[in-house]
């Protein structure tokens, strides 16, 4: 019913992803090549027919759409009273860092992790405190002993969790989240859970929203959710902050308003409501496509590029490739692949931790385009290995 075999041609359209040289193929930024759900486009078109676009604010229908989406998709309805609209996950995250921690404080992240977290922390004059994920048997796990020691430090006032985790594609279990939330409560650390990839679990157990944990455990938690990754509508600039505790929510609300990141643009409300009320079937189809694409990429790499190991994953559309047998300088490898083949992937180096031995590849594109990318990856790795031997 939905078409995932064609990509709208976005060259020359102000797309960040497709601002490339002729012949280049971008598979780096977390932006899918699929057109969004037609139901969302129809709602936006309907809005445009109004012709007058003054100031807006979200009402009960917006917040109920968010709540119903989480009830239906993830089996847990957050209370609409816990929600605040914001213009994006990152704008909210940066505002929360500024409002809820102090200059010089430590903000904990689990590396390798989404690189822009570092900007949100450091641009506000806070320190990044690194709880490096342990890489054991080609899988990532939390070092809880170190985490507890770090959360207990007096200057650690905030932890940013990536749930599910970008770039390693891991879905944290309820037990792991319970342990993290319990430690944060014990040491009075605000726990910010970035759940932007939460709808993109395409196989196995679903992700657990942080607000699904027992009420006493979520009094110091802030969840950030958005349709932007799910429906490929990043330029909609719409997200929702979910804060169960009244006092904490009042402070977060002040932070968002002070930083002026709490007012919707003309398409944010109708686009989000359409996504969350009419997007279920499209998302189900997308998940099937992502599962098929992951299998296509994993099988190709296993057969044709044995020097590269695909890290197992059940979520996101970002493949985490262990290139440690090729190099420990992923930045040099990514630059060489681009130069030789035109394929653009993210060097894991930017995510810190052990990322210098990994590449991140975005596989949310039509299968034919993915095949092209995989063949370029094969050529690029082969060429890199040959030049290293010369
Ligand atoms: C974990 C994570 N958080 C946030 C964002 C960006 O969120 P937004 O566009 O709503 O600011 C991304 C985009 O890739 C992401 O991967």
Notes on the protein architecture:
The chain is α/β, with parallel strands linked by helices. The protein has two domains: 25-36 and 280-389, Aspartate Aminotransferase, domain 1, CATH 3.90.1150.10; 40-278, Type I PLP-dependent aspartate aminotransferase-like (Major domain) (Aspartate Aminotransferase, domain 2, 3-Layer(aba) Sandwich). 39% of the residues lie in helices and 15% in strands. The protein contains eleven helices and 15 strands. It has helices at residues 38-48, 60-74, 89-100, 116-122, 144-152, 174-186, 246-258, 268-278, 280-304, 330-341, 367-389; strands at 25-26, 83-86, 106-109, 127-130, 134-136, 139-141, 156-162, 190-194, 221-225, 239-242, 309-310, 318-322, 343-344, 346-347, 358-362. Strands 2-10-9-8-7-3-4 form a seven-stranded mixed sheet, with helices on both faces. A four-stranded antiparallel sheet has the order 11-12-15-14. Strands 1-13 form a two-stranded parallel ribbon. The structure holds pyridoxal-5'-phosphate (PLP). Residues 30, 88-90, 114, 162, 166, 194, 196, 226, 228, 234, 239 line the site of pyridoxal-5'-phosphate.
């Amino acid at each position: 019913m939905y078409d995932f075999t064609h990509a709208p041609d976005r060259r020359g359209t102000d797309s960040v992803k497709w601002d490339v040289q002729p012949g280049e193929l971008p598979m780096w930024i977390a932006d899918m090549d699929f057109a969004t759900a037609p139901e969302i486009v129809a709602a936006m078109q309907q809005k445009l027919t109004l012709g007058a676009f003054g100031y807006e604010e979200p009402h009960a229908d917006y917040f109920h759409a968010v709540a119903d989406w989480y009830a239906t998709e993830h089996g847990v309805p957050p209370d609409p009273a816990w929600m605040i609209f914001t213009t994006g996950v990152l704008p909210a995250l940066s505002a929360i860092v500024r409002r809820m921690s102090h200059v010089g404080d430590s903000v904990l992240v689990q590396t390798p992790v989404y690189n822009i977290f570092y900007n949100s922390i450091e641009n506000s004059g806070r320190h990044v405190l690194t709880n490096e994920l342990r890489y054991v048997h080609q899988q990532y796990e939390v070092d809880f002993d170190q985490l507890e020691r770090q959360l207990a430090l007096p200057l650690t006032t905030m932890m940013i969790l990536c749930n599910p985790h970008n770039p390693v594609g891991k879905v944290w279990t309820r037990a792991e989240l319970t342990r993290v939330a319990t430690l944060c409560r014990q040491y009075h650390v605000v726990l910010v859970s970035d759940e932007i990839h939460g709808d993109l679990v395409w196989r196995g157990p679903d992700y657990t929203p942080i607000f699904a944990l027992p009420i006493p455990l979520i009094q110091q938690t802030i969840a950030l959710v958005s349709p932007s990754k799910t429906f490929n509508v990043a330029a909609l600039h719409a997200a929702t902050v979910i804060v169960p505790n009244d006092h904490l929510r009042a402070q977060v609300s002040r932070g968002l308003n002070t930083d002026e990141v709490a007012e919707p643009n003309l398409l944010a409300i109708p686009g989000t409501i359409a996504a969350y009320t009419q997007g279920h079937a499209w998302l189900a189809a997308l998940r099937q496509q992502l599962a098929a694409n992951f299998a296509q990429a994993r099988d190709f790499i296993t057969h044709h590029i044995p020097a590269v190991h695909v890290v197992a994953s059940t979520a996101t559309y970002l493949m985490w490739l262990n290139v440690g047998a090729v190099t420990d300088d992923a930045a040099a490898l990514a630059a060489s692949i681009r130069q030789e083949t035109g394929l653009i992937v993210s060097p894991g180096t930017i995510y810190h931790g052990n990322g210098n031995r990994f590449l991140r590849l975005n596989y949310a594109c039509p299968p034919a385009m993915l095949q092209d990318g995989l063949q370029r990856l094969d050529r690029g790795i082969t060429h890199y290995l040959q030049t290293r031997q010369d």
